[in-house]
Specification:
Elements lengths: L8 E6 L6 H14 L4 E5 L13 H12 L5 E3 L2 H4 L6 H12 L5 E6 H5 L10 H4 L1 E5 L11 H10 L5 H5 L5 E3 L9 H9 L10 H9 L6
Parallel strand pairs: 1-2, 1-4, 2-3, 4-5, 5-6
This protein binds adenosine-5'-triphosphate.
The site of adenosine-5'-triphosphate has 18 residues, from α1, β4, α5 and α9.
């Protein structure tokens, strides 16, 4: 028997190599807008044929834990990291659906860049059967799809009232009015590689851990 549906639950997947304020700030704002009590960070297992993260899975997880240690909004789910094989988001969502039941409102948070390339994700057309998509703005990325069929898909599913996200288990896309934070993990790795300070781009505890572990230094 699945548990009785709770409020809207939200997951936020990423490589987090490293986690930074571009991940945290927009999601905090989104949580306020939508009324999320909890956001579960889901660090990815990166498949061997993709460019590998510079930090190990254990280091990426430690950085996530340090980033959220004083922030009760966030928790972390290590199920993808613990697996021997990479998992597709759709598979993880299907697994969660089994655990939570068909009625539980469930959302997956992505940045605007991920929305624009969502049709490259494995089984992307089934994602909205499993969850809602909550989208954070990201500077430098268009607010519309170029492809008319993708723009139509967005318009078919987009809702502007967050209430519906808690009243239905899945199927809607909500574009948050979130702050534009111009930070990427790539930029942080590059700056650290050049020996430049970037302590304003990520939580202090994460920055100290990076230094202590000599991460991202060339
Ligand atoms: P990289 O530069 O290594 O590609 P990244 O900074 O884009 O990394 P990821 O861990 O790949 O970070 O991103 C996880 C999720 O966070 C994705 O959905 C991405 O769209 C979103 N995201 C990352 N940075 C930002 C940002 N500055 N603003 C909004 N969303 C972001």
């Amino acid at each position: 028997m699945n548990a009785k549906p709770q409020g809207l639950q939200a997951l936020f997947g990423g490589t987090f190599d490293p986690i930074h304020y571009g991940h945290l700030r927009p999601v905090e704002a989104l949580a306020k807008q939508v009324g999320l009590q909890k956001v579960i960070l889901l660090p990815n297992h990166v498949p061997p044929h993709r460019p590998q993260p510079e930090a190990s899975p254990a280091q990426r997880l430690e950085m996530v834990k340090l980033a959220i240690q004083d922030n009760p909004l966030f928790s972390v789910d290590t199920r993808e990291l613990r697996r021997d094989t990479p998992s597709f988001t759709l598979e993880t969502l299907s697994e969660l659906r089994q655990e939570l039941g068909e009625q539980q409102p469930l959302a997956f948070i992505i940045g605007q860049d991920s929305l624009l390339s969502i049709n490259t994700w494995h089984g992307w057309t089934q994602l909205l059967d499993k969850c809602h998509l909550l989208v954070c703005a990201r500077p430098g990325y268009a607010t519309h799809f170029d492809a008319p069929d993708m723009q139509q898909w967005l318009q078919q599913h987009q809702v502007t009232e967050p209430q519906i996200l808690s009243e239905t288990p899945s199927g809607s896309i909500f574009i948050g009015d979130t702050p534009l934070v111009n930070i990427s993990a790539t930029e942080i790795r590059e700056q650290l590689g050049l020996g430049q300070a970037c302590d304003d781009l990520l939580p202090r505890a994460v920055y100290h851990y990076i230094q202590q572990q000599n991460l991202y230094q060339k």
